[in-house]
Amino acid sequence: MRKPVIAGNWKMYKLVSEAVSLVLELKPLVANANHCEVVVAPPYTSLRSVADRLEGSGIKVAGQNLCESAEFGARTGEVNGAMLRDAGCEWVIIGHSERREFSSENDALVNAKLKAAMKTGLRPIVCVGERLEEREAGRAEEVVRSQVTGSLGSLTPDEAMPIVVAYEPVWAIGTGRTATPEIAQSMHASIRRFLMEQFGNKTADLMRILYGGSVKPDNIKALMAQRDIDGALVGGASLDARSFAQIVNYPG
Ligand code: PGA
């Protein structure tokens, strides 16, 4: 049984006061959501304030990125896993397409960040997904396969099992253009096959694969009805407490 994960990626939105208002509004709206794990990923500046307000609730906090070094040191502008834990995070998003694009993160760096996250006991959500031109060239599967094998390289099945993979086709992020449930399911099934090749059937069967890219209250149910979709990574719609709560409460 794979317990779904619904995670909200706030990206570079929300001042501290706005972040606090958002989670205070969200908390009661998802208080009965025992069918899934609920995660929010505020920017670094709001992590501690949000974590304090969520203490004792079922909602967990994630960082949106971390440094690939698990040590303390002279790395201006970086934040390591221990600092994220200290700020109240249990989870961390790694290798989001916006970081791959704007901060030149490649699979090797994503893999190093993943190992740093695991070393500090953070639960990773590793993002993969093809660009529009790659899909149009018929290369979507090949691109995602190399991202999965590269990003999750040199791990044992036991290490891989708790890792959450998020499939986010770049052309569907923030565009209002969701992959149809069928397109998403087909890639999720392929990702599970890649994970099987890498870690074996038993592990791949237990690993959760989230869909991300214009997930909204009106499409979550159809996406979650697909057999290999185990949750969602939500950007825009997670910035509003009511719409994120509707997504979390998709079975109801
Ligand atoms: P979106 O973003 O829901 O706004 O498309 C998803 C993401 O980038 O994680």
What is the topology?
Blueprint lengths: L4 E5 L6 H14 L7 E5 L5 H8 L4 E5 L17 H6 L4 E4 L2 H6 L4 H13 L3 E6 L3 H5 L3 H12 L5 H4 L3 E4 L13 H19 L1 H6 L2 E4 L7 H5 L6 E4 L6 H8 L4
Parallel strand pairs: 1-2, 1-8, 2-3, 3-4, 4-5, 5-6, 6-7, 7-8
Helix pairs in contact: 1-2, 1-12, 5-7, 7-9
The protein binds 2-phosphoglycolic acid.
Count of DSSP strands: 8
C-alpha Rg, in Å? 17 Å
Q: Could you estimate the helical fraction of the residues in percent?
A: 40-55%
Sheet with the most strands, sense and barrel status: 8 strands, parallel, barrel
- The fraction of residues in strands falls at 5-15%
Give, in spatial order, the strands making up the sheet with the most strands.
Answer: 1-2-3-4-5-6-7-8
**CATH fold-level label:** TIM Barrel
Number of helices: 12
CATH architecture label: Alpha-Beta Barrel
Gap from first CA to last CA:
20 Å
Helices and strands: which structural class? alpha/beta
- The average pLDDT value, as a whole number, equals 97
